[in-house]
Amino acid sequence: MNSIVINIGNTNIRFGLFDDDNCDISWIINTKPYRTSDELQMQFMMMYQTHKIDAENIDKVIIGSVVPQLTYDITRAIEKIHGKKPIIVDRNTPSGVEPKSKQMGTDIYANLVAAHHLYPEGKKIIFDFGTALTASCIDAKGETIGVIIAPGIITSLNSLIHDTAQLPEIELIKPTKVLGLDTVSCMQSGMVYGFLGMVEGFISRINEEVNEDCFVIATGGVSHVYKPLTEKIHIADRLHTLKGLYFLGKDL
Predict the structure, then answer these.
(1) Of 26, 150, 187, 252, which sees the most CB atoms within 10 A?
(2) 107 with 66: CB under 8 angstroms?
(3) For 83-120, what is each residue's pLDDT tens digit?
């Protein structure tokens, strides 16, 4: 069965083409500026053509969203392309995971669901390096232990640049040294090692609180920057959230 899975985030919209449980192709478009359903339809069709996807061969479209105002327009665009309504999943969609909160975002719930399916043994922590930096923890039974929400890396970097007169835009990459001698390397060190210290601190405190060395998964746009810098993150998977949305909508 072929499925398109769409994760509507505050910064990006990520698409994945699933052949059964395998995501063969994925791509991203920017969430802003907001577009009409007609504009979205044209953009989606262009991406389908780029990746040689025939809409008639798609059996199911699954959508998870944390941007309600976009969900309606994207749903309309998908209906026009595929001639059928997509499946909308959220924290109320039944799964083997107990969210424990009526305020939990769809992305966090999907991260927990994917971890429960893909790594069933022991307790897991999922770090999502998105618009916000989130850390969610789940046990082997599928019970949510808790969640942390902190400012996102790119969000913090943009705030730093926009609210200062002389700091430039920079590429988020590992600097050659922790202590820099020019503005760019100084900022890179602050953003990379500063947030790495936060992540490692969260892992240590969570492990102590749950009395177990958790398996740690990193996902989100800049997770690839941080995974090589620490042994505390065991795996980086940019498609982790998409996989969770797929599992939520798979049997609906």
Answers:
(1) 187
(2) yes
(3) 999 999 999 999 999 988 889 999 999 999 999 999 99
Residue with the two structure tokens 């072929």: 2
Place 220 in a pLDDT band, splitting at 50, 70 and 90.
very high
Q: Is 102 helix (H, G, I), strand (E, B) or coil?
A: coil
Place of tokens 């994945």: 16
Q: Is 10 annotated as a binding residue?
A: yes
Q: Is 7 annotated as a binding residue?
A: yes
**Is 145 marked as a binding-site residue?**
no
> What are the structure tokens assigned to 9, written together?
């985030």
If you search the block for the tokens 């590429």, which residue do you land on?
A: 171
Residue 12 annotated as binding? Answer: yes
Q: Which residues pair with 127 in a beta bridge?
A: 135, 218
User: Looking at the DSSP assignment, which residues form a beta bridge with residue 124?
Assistant: 138, 215
Q: What is the pTM of this model?
A: 0.94
Least confident piece of the model among 8-12, 74-78, 104-108, 133-137: 8-12
220 assigned to a ligand binding site: no
Q: Could you give the percent of the chain with pLDDT greater than 90?
A: 82
Question: Torsion angle, CA of 160/31/131/70, rounded to 10 degrees?
Answer: 130
CA angle 150/152/155 to nearest 5° reads: 130
In which order are the strands placed within the sheet that holds 215-219?
144-151, 132-138, 124-129, 215-219, 235-236
Q: Write out the catalytic residue numbers.
A: 107
User: Is residue 78 a contact partner of residue 37, using CB atoms and an 8 Å limit?
Assistant: no
